[in-house]
């Protein structure tokens, strides 16, 4: 993680977006169990120079459904919010003529999937309000941990495979339709640990790999440990996936 932070800093970027799953196993663990993982992540977080804008991932919810018999947290997002210094898990910011929306794509489901990818009605109402005073030509970037649109499952499981609700945003069409009269230039998304770029209409969708790739066990579906470098110029999106040289030391089955 220190090596990754150094590689990110070497890019001398305008800012950094952390796409979620900052720690592992928070969802099913008690807060005390994953506190050392937060300590490890925050060390990396503080090492990254400049502004860092985080999005929440499924592992960042703490004690949503503990497996050790301890009671679930009243608010599984509270630890994340405190660590990140945020009031809520979705927000917006402007930079260099672009508007960025960071979304919370998590809904605890308590079914066999445990959670679903979902943009809440509260966020949709907030987005609608934000877009009401955003010009139609202003380039917009959405950030969501769980993907809004991906070819990953068609490519890895076959063209007719239906993605499970904990792997994609289930109300993606509701979200995307809101931008019909706006310039949705780019969607940045994660969760799948595989690098992917696709275009639908005038929007580029980039699914990141992961700093840990196959959970520190080497490449995952051809994607090594790394991060994305995005360059925006007008309505042009350039993308590079940067590997930072990690060599796995973790046994593949442990």
Quick structural summary:
The protein has 254 residues and is α/β, with parallel strands linked by helices. Helices cover 22% and strands 24% of the residues. A six-stranded mixed sheet has the order 3-4-7-8-10-9, with no helix packed on it. A two-stranded parallel sheet has the order 1-2.
Q: How does CATH name the architecture?
A: 4-Layer Sandwich
Name the overall outline. globular
In the CATH hierarchy, the third-tier topology is known as Purple Acid Phosphatase, chain A, domain 2
Mean pLDDT: 96
- Beta-strand segment tally: 12
Rg, Cα atoms, Å: 18 Å
Order of helices and strands: HEHEHEEEEHEHHEEEEE
User: Hey, roughly how much beta strand do the residues contain?
Assistant: 15-25%
Q: Would you write up a description of this structure?
A:
The chain has 254 residues and is α/β, with parallel strands linked by helices. The chain has one domain (2-243): 4-Layer Sandwich (Purple Acid Phosphatase, chain A, domain 2). The protein has six helices and twelve strands. It has helices spanning 2-10, 31-47, 78-84, 121-132, 152-157, 172-177, and strands spanning 16-18, 52-54, 91-95, 98-102, 106-108, 115-117, 139-144, 183-189, 196-200, 203-207, 226-233, 236-243. The strands form four sheets. It has a six-stranded mixed sheet, with no helix packed on it. 34% of the residues are buried. The mean pLDDT is 96.
């Amino acid at each position: 993680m220190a090596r990754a932070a150094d590689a990110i800093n070497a890019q001398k970027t305008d800012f950094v977006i952390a796409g979620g799953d900052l720690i592992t196993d928070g969802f099913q663990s008690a807060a005390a169990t994953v506190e050392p993982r937060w300590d490890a992540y925050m060390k990396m977080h503080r090492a990254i120079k400049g502004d860092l804008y985080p999005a929440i991932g499924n592992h960042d919810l703490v004690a949503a459904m503990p497996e050790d018999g301890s009671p679930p947290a009243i608010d599984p997002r509270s630890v994340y919010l405190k660590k990140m210094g945020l009031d809520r898990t979705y927000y917006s910011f402007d930079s260099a003529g672009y508007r960025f929306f960071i979304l919370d794509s998590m809904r605890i489901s308590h079914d066999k999937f445990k959670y679903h990818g979902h943009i809440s009605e509260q966020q949709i109402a907030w987005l609608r309000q934000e877009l009401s005073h955003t010009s139609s030509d202003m380039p917009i970037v959405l950030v969501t941990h769980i993907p809004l649109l991906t070819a990953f499952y068609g490519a890895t499981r076959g063209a007719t495979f239906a993605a499970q609700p904990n792997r994609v945003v289930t109300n993606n069409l509701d979200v995307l339709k809101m931008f019909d009269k706006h310039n949705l230039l780019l969607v940045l998304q994660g969760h799948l640990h595989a690098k992917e770029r696709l275009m639908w209409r005038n929007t580029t969708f980039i699914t990141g790999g992961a700093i840990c790739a196959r959970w520190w066990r080497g490449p995952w579906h051809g994607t090594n440990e790394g991060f994305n470098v995005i360059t925006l110029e007008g309505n042009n999106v350039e993308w590079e996936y940067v590997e930072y040289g990690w060599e796995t030391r973790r046994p593949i089955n442990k």
